[in-house]
Write a structure and sequence with these properties.
Elements lengths: L1 E3 L6 H8 L5 E3 L1 H18 L21 H5 L2 H10 L3 E4 L2 H16 L7 H13 L6 E3 L7 H11 L20 H8 L3 H31 L9 H5 L4 H14 L12 H4 L1 H22 L8 E3 L8 E3 L7 H28 L2 H4 L16 H17 L21 H6 L1 H25 L10 H11 L11 H11 L7
Parallel strand pairs: 1-2
Antiparallel strand pairs: 3-4, 5-6
Helix pairs in contact: 1-5, 1-9, 4-7, 4-8, 5-6, 5-9, 9-11, 9-13, 9-14, 9-18, 9-19, 11-13, 13-14, 14-16, 14-18, 16-18, 18-19, 18-20
């Protein structure tokens, strides 16, 4: 059971809920905070116009709602129904669960003015795993209006759940004052980024270890990883990665060259850049999952007479789009070294083995085609690295003249994860095959982490005769996404 308090929510907890089976509950303090926010919003609405409560939205922001619509909740229901349209493929259950727990955490922050009963309904939906169907197209990085409006319709019983089961205790109606506050969030975009971030964190750890296997198989020169070089690095992340790599390759033997190719010599820079951007994205996500960014922002206390609202643009996910772009660029750049290491592992000049790690030199192709598969995956990663944060659009009769498109950046990160797992898996397959053929054993290496990775690689089929390598790639790619390569 994970308690949602609106103050702190670990990204790993989001991943745990998203994976299914982990329940959530609202902290009493969060319920009190939401109730106080609701009282403040109501008191403010009595004295001044409030966007979405007493006015229309978008280009209709200057249209005042009549008392009949407000009292009968007509406007709120109309807003949800009109904004619930999305299109494209249906998103997976894991992503939808992550969206719901993040939205719950944001509401618990107490800046929306929404009724706590709505948050309770989300808790029930999530714990019953009665999930709304959410499709891929709808958000543009200025709040996931379609996804959350559709969720609201499911909570009302107007839309079926993903598997057609009943929502526990569906809401009878939806107050106008709760409509815009519920959908004014980028919870889906943040959810997709969070899940991808967690997978990438594991992948990058495994990539670092697999790179060390390649380093050992090609008898790399550890001088490039030395403490003296690391201290001179231009980034703490590069310094850290150099130290990790040096520990991993300890005991790997005498270097074969005075100076290695870049794919070995600049490993700290290539991987350190990825780690740096991954950490920066993680820090931002940890803030976003507890951020009350609903527009308008509700603050103060009705009891103390300090209540108020502030209309703002914090829902514009500019920073998130930029952070994802930076991470994708770092991964795309680092992949050049992946491809080169895979290529050199096929070269007798670097391994002392047959071409393409084949069984003999009688024309066998060995792992030749794995270079092509890895290159195809890298092509996808590099395509995903084209910056999204430069995109924009003008909508709603010109009332909304910019958009971050963080939703696009976030949604395509899953594609990068899948492609990178293929690349890391192929390098693991090639490096472990090379070490096996060289007769290297675990006893030669001092690092437990290195030995675990080598053991994982050696668990792959040992047959080096030409054959169908698809099962090998599948198995290696699966290992690449498991913590510590599955050991």
């Amino acid at each position: 059971m994970i308690e949602i308090d609106g103050k702190r929510l670990h990204l790993s907890d989001i991943a745990a809920v998203a994976g299914g089976g982990t329940k959530v509950t609202l902290a009493p303090s969060a319920v009190d905070r939401m109730a106080a926010s609701q009282r403040s919003a109501r008191a403010t609405a009595l004295s001044r116009p409030v966007y979405g409560r007493s006015t229309g939205v978008g280009a209709n922001r200057s249209v005042a709602l009549d008392a009949a619509n407000k009292d009968a909740n007509v406007h709120g229901l109309n807003l949800l129904r009109s904004h619930a349209v999305d299109a494209g493929r249906v998103l997976d259950r894991e992503t939808v669960r992550a969206m719901l727990v993040i939205r719950l955490s944001q509401l618990a922050a107490g800046s929306s003015g929404i009724s706590p009963s709505v948050a309770d309904a989300v808790v029930n939906m999530l714990n019953a795993d009665a999930l709304p169907e959410v499709r891929e197209f709808g958000g543009i990085g200025t709040a996931d209006l379609a996804a959350l409006a559709g969720t609201a319709l499911t909570l009302l019983g107007e839309r079926p759940t993903m598997e057609g089961q009943d929502v526990p205790a569906p809401l009878d109606t939806w107050a106008t004052e709760d409509a815009l506050p519920f959908i004014s969030s980028s919870a889906l975009t943040i959810a997709q980024a969070t899940l991808a971030h967690q997978r990438l964190a594991t992948l990058v750890e495994n990539l670092t270890t697999v790179s060390a296997l390649s380093f050992a198989a090609m008898s790399g020169n550890p001088e490039a990883l030395s403490p003296e070089v690391a201290r001179a690095a231009d980034s703490p992340a590069v310094t850290e990665v150099a130290g990790v790599l040096l520990g991993l390759v300890e005991g790997s033997g005498a270097p074969a060259r005075i100076q290695d190719p870049y794919c070995l010599r600049t490993l700290p820079q290539a991987l350190g850049s990825v780690v740096e951007e991954l950490d920066a994205l993680g820090t931002l996500l940890e803030r976003l999952v507890v951020a009350g960014h609903e527009n308008p922002l509700v603050f103060g206390s009705a009891e103390e007479g300090s209540n108020g609202v502030a209309h703002h643009g914090l829902f514009q996910m500019t920073s998130l789009a930029r952070r994802i772009d930076a991470l994708e660029l770092a991964i795309g750049a680092a992949c050049a070294t992946n491809l080169r290491r895979i290529s050199l592992l096929c070269d007798p000049a670097y391994t002392g083995l047959h071409r393409f790690l084949a069984g003999d030199d009688a024309g066998q192709s060995g792992v030749m085609m794995l270079e092509y598969v890895a290159a195809a995956a890298v092509g996808r990663i590099r395509a995903n690295a084209q910056p999204v944060s430069l995109q924009t659009v003008v909508l709603s009769l010109g009332a909304e003249e910019d958009a971050s498109f963080a939703s696009v950046a976030s949604s395509r990160m899953d594609s990068t994860v899948r492609a990178l797992s293929t690349v890391v898996g192929i390098e693991l397959l090639c490096a472990s095959r090379a070490l096996r053929l060289q007769g290297r054993t675990q006893g030669e290496f001092t690092s437990p982490r290195f030995r675990k990775a080598l053991d994982a690689g050696l668990s792959l089929p040992a047959d080096v005769q030409d054959r169908d390598l698809r099962p090998d790639v599948d198995a290696a790619s699966h290992l690449a996404i498991l913590p510590e390569l599955g050991h």
